[in-house]
Write a structure and sequence with these properties.
alpha+beta; eleven-stranded mixed sheet; 30% strand; six-stranded antiparallel sheet; 361 residues; globular; single chain; 21% helix; 26 strands; 2 domains; YerB-like fold
C-alpha cells in the first residue's frame, strides 16, 4: 500500500512539472529523481522486512529454533546413563539432545546424555559412575557434569580439569540423587529437575556460558542431504560380543531409530523409542589399562569416521589439537561438517575394529 501511494505522489510531481514548464518555469526533474530514489529505498526496505525471521530461541545442541521459549539456553547438563541389560529401559533419556556412547569395560557401554533443558526432567536414570573420557566430552560442551561415583582415572580427570560436577558420593549427592526401591542396586539411582537444580545450587556453579564460548557443532539452516553419500538404510555397530546396537532409517520421518539387545531402545517414562537425525561415528584407539579392563581412549589427535543422515553415509575426519580444545569434524573437501537440525548420536568406536561398522540391511 505504501509503495502505491509513493508512486501516486511521483506521478503528481511529474504532472506539475509539465505544467510549470508550459508557464516558463524551471524543470523540476531533480525532485522527480529524489522521489524515485525514495521509492526504490522504500521497496528495498519492504523486501527486507518481508524476509521471515526464526521464531523462539536457538538451541545450539540441535541447531533448531524453539518456539514459545523466551530465555536463552545456558550451559547444558551432561549425565552418565547406565546401559547394561539389567538397567534398561532407561528413563527420560529421550529428552537428551545429544547422546555419546563409549565402551567402558568388559565390553559394556555407558551413555552420556546432553540436555539443553533439564527443567522438564521427571525421572532420569539410572545414573552410573564417571569415566575420564566423559569428562573430556562434557568440557567440550562447557557442561555441568552429573555422575554417581567414579573410577580412579575418572577422579583424576575430575580433579585435573576442575570441571563443575555433581557427584553422588559427595556432599551434594544427598540432595541431587535418589534410589528407586523398585530397582536393584546399583542400577537404581535417579534424579529429577528439582534435584538437579538443588545440586547446582549446592556446588554454586555458573549456569551461563562465558562470553567467548563457541558451540561445538555447526548446523545447516535446513535439512540438507549429504552430497555424494552412499545408501545407509541401516547402521550396524558391533561394539563387542556383549552389545551390538543398530539404527534403522525411517524415510517418512527422516530419522534413525535405535535398537539394542534385540529390540527397540525405549524410554520407560515417555514410551518413546530413541531416534536421531544425525549419527557420527568417530574412530579412536582404545587401550585396556587395568585388571578391570578400564579403557584409555586417544581423543587428542586426529582420525577418520562417518557421518550419517537422511539415509546416506559419507566419510569424515576428526581433529582435536589439545586436551582443552574442541573436537572438530570435516568432510572430504576439508570443510567443517554441518549437521542437519535435530538430535545427534555419537559413537567413539575402536579404530582397530572398523570392520564392525557396516551400513545396509
Amino acid at each position: 500500500m505504501r509503495r502505491y501511494k509513493t508512486g501516486l505522489i511521483v506521478t503528481m510531481f511529474a504532472a506539475m512539472s509539465m505544467c510549470f514548464c508550459g508557464c516558463g518555469k524551471k524543470d523540476e526533474t531533480p525532485q522527480t529523481t529524489e522521489a524515485t530514489e525514495a521509492t526504490e529505498t522504500e521497496a528495498v526496505t519492504t523486501e527486507e522486512a518481508a524476509e521471515p525471521k526464526p521464531e523462539g530461541v536457538y538451541n545450539d545442541l540441535t541447531g533448531e529454533w524453539v518456539k514459545g521459549r523466551t530465555e536463552e539456553y545456558g550451559r547444558p547438563l551432561t549425565v552418565m546413563i547406565n546401559n547394561i541389560q539389567d538397567a534398561i529401559p532407561q528413563s527420560d533419556i529421550s529428552k537428551a539432545d545429544i547422546i555419546y556412547e563409549f565402551k567402558v569395560e568388559g565390553g559394556i557401554t555407558r551413555l552420556l546424555g546432553i540436555f539443553s533443558d533439564y527443567s522438564k526432567i521427571e525421572k532420569l536414570g539410572s545414573i552410573r559412575s564417571c569415566r575420564p573420557y566423559y569428562v573430556t566430552i562434557s568440557n567440550e560442551f562447557d557442561a555441568i557434569y552429573m555422575h554417581y561415583g567414579q573410577s580412579p582415572q575418572g577422579q583424576e580427570e575430575l580433579d585435573r580439569t576442575g570441571i563443575d560436577h555433581i557427584s553422588g558420593l559427595s556432599a551434594e549427592g544427598g540432595v541431587a540423587f535418589y534410589r528407586d526401591s523398585n530397582k536393584v542396586a546399583p542400577h537404581n539411582v535417579y534424579t529429577t529437575a528439582d534435584m538437579i537444580q538443588a545440586g547446582i545450587d549446592y556446588i554454586k556453579c555458573d549456569t551461563k556460558h562465558s562470553d567467548d564460548f563457541e558451540s561445538k557443532f555447526i548446523f545447516n539452516e535446513e535439512d540438507t542431504k549429504p552430497a555424494d553419500g552412499e545408501a545407509a538404510p541401516k547402521v550396524n555397530l558391533f561394539i563387542s560380543n556383549y552389545t551390538q546396537p543398530y539404527f534403522e532409517y525411517n524415510e517418512k520421518e527422516g530419522v534413525y531409530y535405535r535398537f539394542q539387545y534385540g529390540g527397540p531402545q525405549v524410554d520407560e517414562l515417555t514410551g518413546e523409542q530413541l531416534k536421531f537425525k544425525n549419527i557420527i561415528i568417530q574412530f579412536a584407539h582404545y587401550t585396556s589399562i587395568d585388571d578391570h579392563d578400564r579403557q584409555l581412549i586417544d581423543l587428542v589427535g586426529e582420525g577418520e569416521g562417518y557421518y550419517v543422515s537422511d539415509g546416506v553415509v559419507i566419510p569424515i575426519t576428526w581433529k582435536k589439537s589439545s586436551d582443552s580444545s574442541v573436537t572438530k569434524y570435516s568432510t572430504a573437501d576439508g570443510k567443517e561438517l554441518k549437521l542437519n537440525p535435530g538430535k545427534t548420536y555419537v559413537n567413539v568406536f575402536e579404530t582397530d575394529d572398523k570392520a564392525g561398522v557396516t551400513f545396509g540391511e
